[in-house]
Design a protein that fits this description.
There is one protein chain. With 202 residues, the protein is α+β, with helices and mostly antiparallel strands. The chain has six helices and nine strands. Helices cover 39% and strands 23% of the residues. It is globular, with a radius of gyration of 19 Å. The structure holds nickel (II) ion.
């Protein structure tokens, strides 16, 4: 009897924990205001110099000449990045249909593995206009810090890749004036394109 009660308590506890996780993973349909990523908009973003997928050194000023979407991830990412980068590519296409030219940029948080060649095959598969950026560990950290991106190597000896990267997965809408909006992962591309078009008064 006592064992049964303990079992019930344990089951309820697991149920409540699962519900909490479920609620945490719920994605709102609205763009996050910059305040919701725990930072004022004026403190997000900043200059960087990195290496593009052709091996050329490029500055953020050279790249962000107009409306731009930026995502930090890595090419080995098994699940989240491919979805988020596809959303970014789809949003760029939807905005092009509205006559809005937006440049998608993918910045790696795994420069040890993501050399320009890996970045080239990744971005070419994702979108013809996508720019892929890598750099030294210090350069990537500087760019990630500027955008308040958290990333951390997680060793997974059982996997072939050897390690994964934990990382925040926000998509940043940026113009030459700075960061204008931050989108949570799982955001629908139609909603992202709509929100950006409104910000560009279209
Ligand atoms: Ni990822």
């Amino acid at each position: 009897m006592r064992k049964a009660v303990m079992g019930l308590v344990a089951a309820v506890f697991v149920g409540v924990a699962a519900m909490g996780l479920y609620l945490t993973l719920q994605k709102p349909d609205q763009p996050l205001s910059p305040a919701m990523v725990n930072a004022d908009v004026s403190t997000i973003g900043g200059p960087f110099t990195l290496t593009d997928q052709t091996g050329k050194r490029v500055t953020s000023a050279e790249l962000i000449k107009g409306p731009t979407l930026i995502y930090f991830g890595y090419t080995f990412c098994p699940d989240v990045c491919p979805v988020d980068v596809t959303v970014m590519a789809d949003a760029v296409d939807l905005l092009a249909e509205k006559g809005l030219d937006v440049t998608p940029i993918f910045i790696t948080v795994d420069p040890a593995r993501d050399d320009p060649e890996s970045m080239a095959s990744y971005v070419e598969a994702m979108h013809p206009k996508m720019v892929g950026l890598t750099g030294t560990e210090a350069e990537i950290k500087q760019a990630a810090d500027a955008y308040k991106v958290y990333y951390q190597r997680v060793n997974t000896p059982e996997s072939q890749a050897g390690y994964l990267m934990n990382h925040t997965s926000f998509t940043y809408f940026v113009t030459p004036d700075g960061v204008k909006a931050v989108f949570r992962d799982g955001f629908p591309p139609e909603e992202m394109a709509g929100a950006i078009a409104r910000m560009l008064n279209r």
